[in-house]
Design a protein that fits this description.
alpha+beta, two-stranded antiparallel sheet, 4 helices
């Protein structure tokens, strides 16, 4: 009998997908995510850090986030970032709902932009997670998942 996504999420013995960056863990050749929220975090991170045209066999996959972050900074930057993040997620990850996109800058380094994205999944809309992308270094700035 086929299990629902909710049943898979509640089963601690089940893996949902691959954890990124790819690495081995104690049990597997690749570290795995244990629930859909963890997997959504990695899928969102992957989408936001992939430039359009970078993915082989899927040249339209990705987000213009890094491109926009390196444009001239002005008062419209937060709106541009919000738009490109929401457009990419709506197109590629429709099960993720974006509740907030916040643009932060480093006072010591005006060229450094952080993008904090708060999100939930359609499977559990009441639980909100967030990731922060360091656009200057094209990395996740912090892991705030608590797991």
């Amino acid at each position: 009998m086929r299990r629902t996504a909710r049943e898979v999420d509640l089963d601690p013995r089940t893996s949902v997908g691959l954890s990124f960056p790819l690495r081995a863990d104690i049990l597997n050749n690749f570290a795995m995510t244990r629930n859909s929220l963890q997997q959504a975090r990695f899928n969102l991170q992957n989408l936001l850090l992939t430039n359009i045209g970078e993915r082989v066999m899927q040249p339209s996959f990705g987000c213009k986030l890094l491109e926009v972050c390196f444009e001239q900074q002005d008062n419209t930057l937060p709106n541009k970032i919000d738009t490109v993040v929401r457009d990419a997620v709506d197109n590629w990850l429709p099960y993720i709902g974006i509740s907030n996109v916040e643009t932060l800058t480093n006072d010591g380094d005006k060229g450094q932009v952080f993008v904090k994205v708060s999100f939930s999944t359609s499977l559990d809309p009441a639980t909100t997670e967030q990731i922060t992308i360091d656009a200057k270094n094209a990395t996740v700035a912090q892991n705030t998942g608590g797991y």
